[in-house]
Write a structure and sequence with these properties.
This protein is α/β, with parallel strands linked by helices and 381 residues long. It is 40% helix and 15% strand. It contains 13 helices and 14 strands. The strands form 4 sheets. A 7-stranded mixed sheet has the order 2-8-7-6-5-3-4, with helices on both faces. Strands 9-10-14 form a 3-stranded antiparallel sheet. A two-stranded parallel sheet has the order 1-11. It is an enzyme of class 2 (transferase).
Length: 381
């Protein structure tokens, strides 16, 4: 049986070149980068070069990069660290209903200790209104955190427009770019953001490493306490092999970016062509011109759990925004925000996502299998 991985938005396979080049770092350059002896200096050199390389990829300076254990920690440091460091200026935060749970849970924590959080709705394409942001800004607003591209439906938010709006306001602007980095060209200066989160495992790098871009001069209250690593902003001995692998993965991921985007868009069009060939009843959730690697499709008269199980039995890995547990489905908060709690889309939508190693012949084969499964499961309802 063929096994086809169409869940790259959840995590991506480690690039073979990254794996190969990380091994010598683990075996030969094991020193602590804070040590002053030659072993430590070797590790420090690798760390500094990797930091410099990643900073260049987003138009930042090396000192603006804070290495973390991944996107979740980067989001937490950005949101909680900013809120606690600037509580003397206000206690209001603006975010959206469709953020990753790393953002939503961080905001919920701040609510539990007295902060006020506004959760903005989105339209049926998954996009917020800049006017909504403007309407909810107050003199107490200290942070706006809005994701660059959504992990479930691929909706891209008007980040530049929001940053323009905030130019004359005290609020700092954070964007979770975990799903967009390596897919969309990102320059923090052009975007106008103050804080930006990225994770390695979404771009064929190792798990357990990410970074937070924090614009020079921004004060953050650390969320970890210990040593004085990362300019005293994030304690803990740096994961040198992981950071090196992250840097290399970014280098590989950002090559031929436009060509990669066109290939992923062609995969969406191929799946649509096959679905039309089978005369399936379906609708795309979100816009086709959102994040090119994310493709969320609503199949009426089907059910998430049944679809996912049957797809897995056919060797096709996909996902939904729902947390499936024994006998129950926790609806996707993204689709709820887009279509309402009563919409059938919440229980009948599947996300397919593409990445390194995905081939057109796999897409064609998978689309035919998906169409057969949808026809079969829809009839049995």
């Amino acid at each position: 049986m063929k096994r086809i991985y169409l869940d790259h938005a959840a995590t991506s396979p480690l690039h073979p070149e990254v794996a190969e080049k990380m091994l010598p770092i683990m075996l030969e350059h094991f020193g602590n980068p804070s040590s002053i002896h030659s072993f430590g200096r070797d590790a420090r050199r690798i760390l500094d070069e990797s930091r410099r390389n990643l900073a260049l990829k987003i138009g930042a300076t090396s000192s603006e990069i804070i290495f973390t254990s991944g996107g979740t920690e980067a989001d937490n440091l950005a949101i909680i660290g900013t809120a606690l460091a600037h509580s003397n200026k206000g206690n209001h935060i603006i975010t959206t209903e469709i953020e990753h749970h790393a953002v939503l849970r961080a905001c919920e924590y701040l609510e539990s200790i007295g902060y006020d959080v506004t959760y903005l709705p989105v339209n049926d394409q998954g996009i917020i209104s800049v006017d909504d942001v403007k309407k909810h800004l107050t003199d107490q607003t200290i942070l706006v955190t809005i994701m660059y591209g959504n992990n479930e439906v691929g909706a891209i938010q008007p980040i530049k427009e929001i940053s323009k709006l905030l130019e004359s306001h005290q609020a700092f602007f954070h964007t979770d770019a975990v799903q967009a980095f390596g897919i969309e060209p990102i320059n923090v200066k052009e975007l106008g953001v103050d804080l930006l989160s990225v994770s390695a495992h979404k771009i064929n790098g190792p798990k357990g490493v990410g970074f937070l871009y924090a614009k020079s001069g921004i004060k953050l209250k650390p969320t970890l306490y210990g040593g004085e690593q990362e300019l005293k902003r994030r304690a803990g001995t740096e994961n040198v092999p992981g950071i090196y692998g992250f840097s290399l993965a970014a280098e590989l991921s950002l090559k031929n970016l436009e060509q990669k985007r066109e290939v992923f868009l062609s995969y969406k069009k191929e799946m649509i062509s096959v679905f039309d060939e089978y005369q399936l009843e379906y609708e795309v959730n979100g816009l086709l011109n959102g994040l090119p690697h994310v493709f969320n499709v609503y199949f009426p008269k089907t059910h998430i759990e049944s679809l996912l199980v049957n797809l897995d039995l056919a060797g096709i890995a996909a996902s939904s925004g729902s947390a499936c547990t024994a006998g129950s489905v926790d609806p996707s908060h993204v689709l709820v925000s887009m279509f309402g709690k009563e919409s059938d889309r919440i229980t009948s939508s599947i996300r397919f996502s593409f990445g390194y190693g995905t081939k057109m012949e796999e897409i064609n084969y998978a689309a035919h299998e998906i169409a057969k499964i949808v026809k079969r499961t829809a009839k049995s309802k």
